[in-house]
């Protein structure tokens, strides 16, 4: 009897300790989050960087952050004047809006300032073509070009005047820099495109913050919509291309889905629990344990990671399904001894199964923590904390909360339940198992595996179409792949870039790319400047060189000619530095390519246009230069992590089998482990048969099929003394799980859909297989099990 | 001496300003300009191909003597402009809506496509509209000015709306009567290019040789 007393004291002690802990969680939740939860929606933030070099990683992040903030708009109308007016109104509306840092409509061309900025250094700057001509002794051709500029309309395109640039060297240098813009043309001060029988003007907007932050989306999207409406009223159509509209749509969609699915699964679960227990108290107890679990999980993630990711919330909403299981196991224990059930005794019966389940889940999450997914780490922390707290609530709080007695089961339902009770294996059951395995084998042979970036976001067709039209209209847009060049000093990085450019020129000539933009075209390294100066002094600036001839032809008197020649020779000593260039108008079109000092290294970017053969670009090998293909890298990365996840799943099965062998012996353990295993094989098979490709997220869900499916098997195994109540527990658990996870299969976000569909099929199969494989009830002492 | 050198450009500037001024006294819209230049436009409309000779003189700031060149031109409304400089040396300049090509002895010496130079099409458009007297095409890129003189004579002024174009030509004055007689460009440095045109009676369609040039 004293053990009974001790046990009661223990239950009470645990209750108060846990209650105090939970109060602390509530306080922390209110104090820490204050109701405003900032969510991160960039799925890529969950994935590890593609590069292992932290310098490269940071440089990349900086460049893609800056590129990600840009949105390109085309404002078009059949009437050129309308298009222009609408474009101006659109740009003005954007400019006045919240969250937008910069709007580019009229081309800011500072040719005059650019010429002035280069003026002092013009004797050490040469275009590639002029350098080759001078070096190979073809100065005559250069001279002829300069003459043509003087006497024919060819001179019109020259930015520098003959007086300041008699040989046209500076003009050539400047003209070789003009970035190719594809179909885009300068028209009356704005960039415009003709296509689809319309005139389009180009507006480029840059948001102040990253597109994946919900605050940016909330601030900027209304501004864009308002501006678009304004243009529409003025008889113009607006097309857009950029990350923000996609990110905003995807985030909104995901939030909406989490909300609706959460609500549906909540209502469904409440109705189900009401039906099973015929009392409101179990519903509130379940809800309370889940809510506390979620709160603790959010606080933990917020503390550890600073920001909670949207994906974590999606998984969080599915966590409800697992956490509800613990309270279900506890509360349905009431069916074991109707009318005489005591919550304090229940712990003894439920705890082993629940703790074993939690142990399995925590093992799985610990494996996830060790796997190289920084993002999944957050999900693992979230789930582990949430489940542990929910489990604690069930085991510590529930016994003292006077859970209600089980209601009477109607004879009809009892008949069904009894029919479902585990039996010695029969032919029918074996046949079903064989069928599932067969589906698995056939399906797996037809399975396709797709892992790419498009899985990550729901893209509505109209945005996709708009993006496609912008690309087609502009004809040669900058691609998402680019070269990253690094170096120990600013001059190193420039020299490395200069070494790469001849290779790119060759690739451009072969048609591998149609264009590229490199800042060394506008800012040669000091070494190249020095070589240019030496070359000029040796050739064009020599005492009887081209410069003297041109000056004489222009009509200067001999004294003036020698004066100007001496000036040029002296000027060849000046060198343009990175700092001066960056501070001047000369860097206007190239400044974004200079990443500057990144963690002690200098980095520049070379953007590419019209890539036709990515393999040829990958083949370019040079130290301190790498091709960055984020989209391709991410697909490869997702694929690689799918492999890793698959290994983790298999490892998980082996670990669980070993663990359970210790408790049940190998044969029983195998029975327990086989049910999620066969369910998983069947799920993959069905994916293959219905043509649903497998991806990282469906593979990841198999881990949850293991975790949840094994719970059912464990509970049927542990609850052999009271098969009826165990059966009720498992069925209720499966129903709530399907209500929460199964809903996700209807998501329009591909990866959430994959996740939901895997669990919908997997859990259904897991229940069926667990029932077939479960060992029949043990004969037990009367009184423990209801027989009548 | 030093004073004199300083004075020269100043005087040139003053002269330029004086020359340009009257053309910009009367703002006009495209419709008004059409009426002002109606006589010339009527003549132009009759001839899809214009031929003639030109004399170009460039007055460059800081450079002592004007640079003079002369030659023949062919302007086809469909194909483009062929500017054949004969003096001081033989050089062909062919401007089509999509490219700018320079020939030396019939061989391509330099070629610039609109795709490489986003500004090229504007320059091309402007030239076409100037020589084909198309005020409505000019209205997109320029503020327009214009005034009728004695009998059929007229003068037309153009000021670019965008800073980009202003770098190439800050002001343009076109004078004519039944045809375009003279075109003057000022650029932002005060350099002036003056082109005097005389037309020939030959208004035959493009010959095969001429047509082939525009395909280069």
How many strand units of chain B?
Answer: 11
What's the number of extended β-strand segments of chain A? 13
> What fold name goes in the CATH topology slot of chain B?
outer membrane lipoprotein receptor (LolB), chain A
- Count of discrete structural domains of chain B: 1
Strand order of the largest sheet of chain B: 6-5-4-3-2-1-11-10-9-8-7
* Low-confidence regions of chain B: 1-21
Q: How far is it from the N-terminal to the C-terminal residue of chain A, by CA?
A: 30 Å
Mean pLDDT of chain A, rounded to whole units? 84
- Cα(first) to Cα(last) distance of chain B is 51 Å
Radius of gyration of chain A, in angstroms, nearest whole number: 35 Å
What structural class is derived from the secondary structure elements of chain B? alpha+beta
Indicate the structural class of chain A: alpha+beta
Largest sheet of chain A, in brief, is:
6 strands, antiparallel
Molecular shape of chain A? elongated
CATH class placement of chain B: Mainly Beta
Structure description:
The complex is a heterodimer of chains A (788) and B (216). Chain A is of the alpha+beta class. Chain A has helices at residues 2-33, 54-68, 80-95, 111-119, 128-135, 139-151, 169-175, 214-233, 243-277, 280-305, 310-332, 343-370, 374-397, 411-420, 427-446, 461-474, 490-510, 526-538, 546-553, 558-571, 578-583, 614-618, 630-664, 666-690, 696-718, 723-744, 750-773, and strands at residues 39-40, 70-77, 100-104, 185-187, 190-195, 198-207, 237-242, 308-309, 478-487, 515-517, 594-598, 601-609, 625-628. In chain A, the strands form three sheets. In chain A, strands 2, 3, 4, 5, 6 and 7 form a six-stranded antiparallel sheet that branches. In chain A, α10 (280-305) runs antiparallel to α11, α11 (310-332) runs parallel beside α13 (374-397) and α25 (696-718) packs parallel to α27 (750-773). Chain A starts with a helix and ends in a 15-residue tail after the last helix. Residues 781-788 of chain A have low confidence and may be disordered. Chain B has one domain (3-213): Lipoprotein localisation LolA/LolB/LppX (outer membrane lipoprotein receptor (LolB), chain A). The radius of gyration of chain B is 18 Å and the shape is globular. In chain B, strands 6-5-4-3-2-1-11-10-9-8-7 form an eleven-stranded antiparallel sheet, with helices on both faces. Chains A and B meet through α6 and β4 of A and β4, β5, β6, α4 and α6 of B.
